[in-house]
Amino acid sequence: MRYEREYSSSRTINKRLSKDSLHKKLSGVCAGIAKHYDLPRIVVRIAAIGALIMIPVATGVAYVVASVLLPESRYK
Known about the structure:
By secondary structure, the chain is an all-alpha fold. It is built from three helices and no strands.
């Protein structure tokens, strides 16, 4: 079984952290983090849900701040 990431085989990755508006579920923060670090989106989303269950206030505040401060991706 061969697993190829969607971002690896395409064009050069912009290494600036930004929200991914193409693959977003809420605001695109988790998808943007996954794209920046070349990780599967589902892993980042599961980690965010786990952090939200364990430390809800800090994770919620961090997510809201990131969704406000991170710029939208220039590539759609």
